[in-house]
Design brief:
The chain is of the alpha/beta class. The chain is built from five helices and five strands, in the order ββαααβββαα. The protein has two domains: 81 residues, no CATH class; 88 residues, no CATH class. The longest helix is centred in the last third of the chain and has 16 residues.
Amino acid sequence: MGAVLSDTRPQLKDYPAIVPHLPVGTADTAPAFNSGVMLFDLEQIRAEGAMERIRSVAGRLTEKCGDQALFNFGFSGRWAPIAPRWNRQVFLTPAFSIHRTAPDTIWHVIRNLKPWQVDPTTAYGLAASFYGHLAYVGWTPDPRSTVRVHSSPWRESVKAAHAALARHLPFLR
Protein backbone atom coordinates (compact mmCIF):
# COMPACT_ATOMS: atom_id res chain seq x y z
CA MET A 1 0.00 0.00 0.00
CA GLY A 2 1.27 3.47 -0.78
CA ALA A 3 0.32 6.73 0.92
CA VAL A 4 1.67 10.18 1.76
CA LEU A 5 3.10 10.87 5.21
CA SER A 6 0.64 12.67 7.46
CA ASP A 7 1.28 16.39 7.93
CA THR A 8 -0.75 16.63 11.12
CA ARG A 9 -0.17 13.24 12.79
CA PRO A 10 3.26 12.02 11.69
CA GLN A 11 3.66 9.04 14.08
CA LEU A 12 1.51 6.10 15.17
CA LYS A 13 1.53 7.39 18.77
CA ASP A 14 -0.55 10.32 17.51
CA TYR A 15 -3.45 7.84 17.35
CA PRO A 16 -3.67 6.80 21.02
CA ALA A 17 -6.69 4.55 20.48
CA ILE A 18 -4.70 2.11 18.34
CA VAL A 19 -1.35 2.08 20.19
CA PRO A 20 -2.30 -0.71 22.65
CA HIS A 21 -3.37 -2.90 19.70
CA LEU A 22 -0.21 -2.52 17.58
CA PRO A 23 1.60 -5.77 16.78
CA VAL A 24 4.43 -6.68 19.16
CA GLY A 25 7.61 -4.97 18.05
CA THR A 26 5.88 -2.08 16.28
CA ALA A 27 7.28 1.21 17.56
CA ASP A 28 4.69 3.85 18.35
CA THR A 29 7.12 6.33 16.79
CA ALA A 30 6.80 4.62 13.39
CA PRO A 31 5.65 6.98 10.63
CA ALA A 32 1.94 7.44 9.99
CA PHE A 33 0.21 8.28 6.72
CA ASN A 34 -2.76 10.39 5.70
CA SER A 35 -5.62 8.23 4.41
CA GLY A 36 -6.93 10.83 1.95
CA VAL A 37 -5.27 9.10 -1.01
CA MET A 38 -4.04 5.51 -0.80
CA LEU A 39 -2.75 3.24 -3.54
CA PHE A 40 -3.71 -0.40 -3.02
CA ASP A 41 -2.56 -3.69 -4.46
CA LEU A 42 -5.93 -5.34 -3.81
CA GLU A 43 -4.68 -8.88 -4.32
CA GLN A 44 -1.93 -8.34 -1.76
CA ILE A 45 -4.10 -6.73 0.92
CA ARG A 46 -6.68 -9.48 0.52
CA ALA A 47 -3.98 -12.15 0.79
CA GLU A 48 -2.50 -10.52 3.91
CA GLY A 49 -5.92 -10.08 5.55
CA ALA A 50 -5.40 -6.34 6.13
CA MET A 51 -9.10 -5.47 6.14
CA GLU A 52 -9.92 -8.31 8.53
CA ARG A 53 -7.16 -7.03 10.85
CA ILE A 54 -8.72 -3.56 10.76
CA ARG A 55 -12.24 -4.88 11.41
CA SER A 56 -11.03 -7.03 14.30
CA VAL A 57 -9.61 -4.08 16.22
CA ALA A 58 -12.35 -1.58 15.28
CA GLY A 59 -14.90 -3.47 17.34
CA ARG A 60 -12.64 -3.53 20.42
CA LEU A 61 -11.77 0.16 20.58
CA THR A 62 -13.23 2.02 23.52
CA GLU A 63 -12.70 5.56 22.26
CA LYS A 64 -13.71 7.29 19.06
CA CYS A 65 -11.37 6.42 16.23
CA GLY A 66 -11.51 7.57 12.62
CA ASP A 67 -10.65 5.75 9.42
CA GLN A 68 -7.15 7.20 9.32
CA ALA A 69 -6.21 5.68 12.68
CA LEU A 70 -7.65 2.31 11.67
CA PHE A 71 -5.84 2.28 8.32
CA ASN A 72 -2.59 3.18 10.08
CA PHE A 73 -3.17 0.25 12.43
CA GLY A 74 -4.00 -2.17 9.61
CA PHE A 75 -1.04 -1.21 7.47
CA SER A 76 1.57 -0.44 10.16
CA GLY A 77 4.89 -1.58 8.79
CA ARG A 78 3.26 -2.59 5.50
CA TRP A 79 3.12 0.64 3.54
CA ALA A 80 5.49 2.76 1.47
CA PRO A 81 5.56 6.53 1.24
CA ILE A 82 4.64 8.07 -2.10
CA ALA A 83 5.34 11.57 -3.41
CA PRO A 84 3.48 14.37 -1.60
CA ARG A 85 1.93 15.51 -4.89
CA TRP A 86 -0.45 12.54 -4.59
CA ASN A 87 -2.02 14.02 -1.44
CA ARG A 88 -1.21 17.70 -0.88
CA GLN A 89 -2.70 18.32 2.56
CA VAL A 90 -4.03 21.86 2.98
CA PHE A 91 -6.64 23.49 5.18
CA LEU A 92 -9.12 26.32 4.78
CA THR A 93 -10.18 29.00 7.23
CA PRO A 94 -12.68 31.84 6.92
CA ALA A 95 -9.72 34.26 7.11
CA PHE A 96 -7.86 33.07 4.00
CA SER A 97 -8.12 30.66 1.11
CA ILE A 98 -5.75 28.32 -0.71
CA HIS A 99 -5.01 28.66 -4.41
CA ARG A 100 -3.81 25.74 -6.52
CA THR A 101 -0.10 26.27 -7.24
CA ALA A 102 0.83 22.91 -8.74
CA PRO A 103 -1.06 21.50 -11.73
CA ASP A 104 0.03 17.88 -11.21
CA THR A 105 -1.13 17.56 -7.61
CA ILE A 106 -4.14 16.07 -5.81
CA TRP A 107 -5.26 18.67 -3.27
CA HIS A 108 -6.79 17.23 -0.10
CA VAL A 109 -8.54 19.68 2.23
CA ILE A 110 -7.92 18.45 5.77
CA ARG A 111 -9.36 19.61 9.10
CA ASN A 112 -12.89 20.88 9.68
CA LEU A 113 -13.74 23.45 6.99
CA LYS A 114 -14.39 21.87 3.58
CA PRO A 115 -14.92 23.71 0.26
CA TRP A 116 -18.62 22.78 0.11
CA GLN A 117 -19.21 24.56 3.43
CA VAL A 118 -18.02 27.91 2.07
CA ASP A 119 -20.66 30.37 0.87
CA PRO A 120 -20.25 30.35 -2.94
CA THR A 121 -20.55 34.15 -3.07
CA THR A 122 -17.39 34.53 -0.95
CA ALA A 123 -15.43 31.54 -2.27
CA TYR A 124 -11.89 31.98 -3.60
CA GLY A 125 -9.16 29.54 -4.62
CA LEU A 126 -9.91 25.86 -4.05
CA ALA A 127 -13.42 26.55 -2.79
CA ALA A 128 -14.23 28.62 -5.89
CA SER A 129 -12.72 25.88 -8.06
CA PHE A 130 -14.98 23.36 -6.31
CA TYR A 131 -18.06 25.44 -7.18
CA GLY A 132 -16.79 25.85 -10.75
CA HIS A 133 -16.59 22.07 -11.11
CA LEU A 134 -20.11 21.71 -9.69
CA ALA A 135 -21.44 24.18 -12.25
CA TYR A 136 -19.58 22.43 -15.07
CA VAL A 137 -21.32 19.11 -14.37
CA GLY A 138 -24.68 20.75 -13.65
CA TRP A 139 -24.88 20.16 -9.90
CA THR A 140 -26.45 22.73 -7.61
CA PRO A 141 -24.54 23.85 -4.49
CA ASP A 142 -25.96 22.98 -1.09
CA PRO A 143 -27.93 26.03 0.11
CA ARG A 144 -26.61 25.41 3.65
CA SER A 145 -23.07 26.45 2.60
CA THR A 146 -22.85 29.45 4.89
CA VAL A 147 -19.22 29.96 5.97
CA ARG A 148 -18.21 33.35 4.61
CA VAL A 149 -14.58 34.00 3.68
CA HIS A 150 -13.35 37.32 5.07
CA SER A 151 -10.27 37.74 2.89
CA SER A 152 -10.02 40.94 0.86
CA PRO A 153 -10.55 40.69 -2.89
CA TRP A 154 -7.24 42.51 -3.42
CA ARG A 155 -5.34 39.90 -1.40
CA GLU A 156 -7.11 37.09 -3.25
CA SER A 157 -6.19 38.65 -6.61
CA VAL A 158 -2.51 38.70 -5.63
CA LYS A 159 -2.69 35.10 -4.37
CA ALA A 160 -4.45 33.97 -7.55
CA ALA A 161 -1.81 35.66 -9.72
CA HIS A 162 1.00 34.05 -7.70
CA ALA A 163 -0.67 30.63 -8.00
CA ALA A 164 -1.10 31.02 -11.76
CA LEU A 165 2.58 31.91 -12.15
CA ALA A 166 3.64 29.06 -9.84
CA ARG A 167 1.78 26.52 -11.95
CA HIS A 168 4.05 27.45 -14.85
CA LEU A 169 7.23 28.41 -12.97
CA PRO A 170 8.04 25.57 -10.52
CA PHE A 171 10.63 27.62 -8.59
CA LEU A 172 7.76 29.74 -7.18
CA ARG A 173 6.07 26.74 -5.48
